[in-house]
């Protein structure tokens, strides 16, 4: 009878060791999964930034198409005879920034005021 109790204790110790090994393996797998999820999170952030950039570019395409169309309207005034001598080009488009809150534009405006002749500068500051 004295053999049985130590055997059950030994069995319990072996069972607990096996449980500990399983728990350690689960801990390792959990660490790997955590690292993979962190990597996935950073990649998703990059993709999100890229998607926002792509959306911004695509949102501008309508304006680009309108601008090209506007420039091409000038070609309609030419006749076939004009194409024989030289190929007409579309109208030139000029981009003018309208926001005056842009600090770069304000610096450029300050420089342009300095470049004006004294009589013109006095006239514009009134």
Automatic annotation (TrEMBL):
<dbReference type="GO" id="GO:0042729">
    <property type="term" value="C:DASH complex"/>
</dbReference>
<dbReference type="GO" id="GO:0005874">
    <property type="term" value="C:microtubule"/>
</dbReference>
<keyword id="KW-0493">Microtubule</keyword>
<dbReference type="GO" id="GO:0044732">
    <property type="term" value="C:mitotic spindle pole body"/>
</dbReference>
<protein>
    <recommendedName>
        <fullName>DASH complex subunit DAD2</fullName>
    </recommendedName>
</protein>
<dbReference type="InterPro" id="IPR013963">
    <property type="entry name" value="DASH_Dad2"/>
</dbReference>
<keyword id="KW-0131">Cell cycle</keyword>
<dbReference type="GO" id="GO:0051301">
    <property type="term" value="P:cell division"/>
</dbReference>
<dbReference type="GO" id="GO:1990023">
    <property type="term" value="C:mitotic spindle midzone"/>
</dbReference>
<dbReference type="Pfam" id="PF08654">
    <property type="entry name" value="DASH_Dad2"/>
</dbReference>
<keyword id="KW-0158">Chromosome</keyword>
<keyword id="KW-0539">Nucleus</keyword>
<comment type="similarity">
    <text>Belongs to the DASH complex DAD2 family.</text>
</comment>
<keyword id="KW-0995">Kinetochore</keyword>
<keyword id="KW-0206">Cytoskeleton</keyword>
<keyword id="KW-0159">Chromosome partition</keyword>
<dbReference type="GO" id="GO:0000278">
    <property type="term" value="P:mitotic cell cycle"/>
</dbReference>
<feature type="region of interest" description="Disordered">
    <location>
        <begin position="100"/>
        <end position="126"/>
    </location>
</feature>
<dbReference type="GO" id="GO:0008608">
    <property type="term" value="P:attachment of spindle microtubules to kinetochore"/>
</dbReference>
<feature type="compositionally biased region" description="Acidic residues">
    <location>
        <begin position="115"/>
        <end position="126"/>
    </location>
</feature>
<keyword id="KW-0963">Cytoplasm</keyword>
<feature type="compositionally biased region" description="Basic and acidic residues">
    <location>
        <begin position="100"/>
        <end position="114"/>
    </location>
</feature>
<keyword id="KW-0137">Centromere</keyword>
<keyword id="KW-0498">Mitosis</keyword>
<keyword id="KW-0132">Cell division</keyword>
């Amino acid at each position: 009878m004295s053999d049985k109790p130590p055997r059950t204790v030994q069995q319990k110790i072996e069972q607990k060791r096996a449980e500990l090994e399983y728990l350690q393996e689960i801990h390792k797998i959990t660490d790997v999964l955590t690292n993979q999820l962190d990597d996935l999170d950073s990649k998703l952030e990059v993709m999100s930034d890229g998607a926002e950039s792509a959306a911004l570019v695509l949102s501008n395409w309508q304006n680009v198409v309108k601008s090209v169309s506007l420039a091409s309207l000038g070609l309609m005034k030419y006749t076939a005879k004009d194409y024989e001598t030289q190929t007409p080009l579309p109208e030139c488009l000029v981009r003018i920034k309208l926001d005056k809150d842009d600090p770069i534009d304000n610096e450029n405006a300050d420089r342009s005021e300095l470049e004006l002749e004294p009589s013109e500068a006095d006239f514009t500051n009134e």
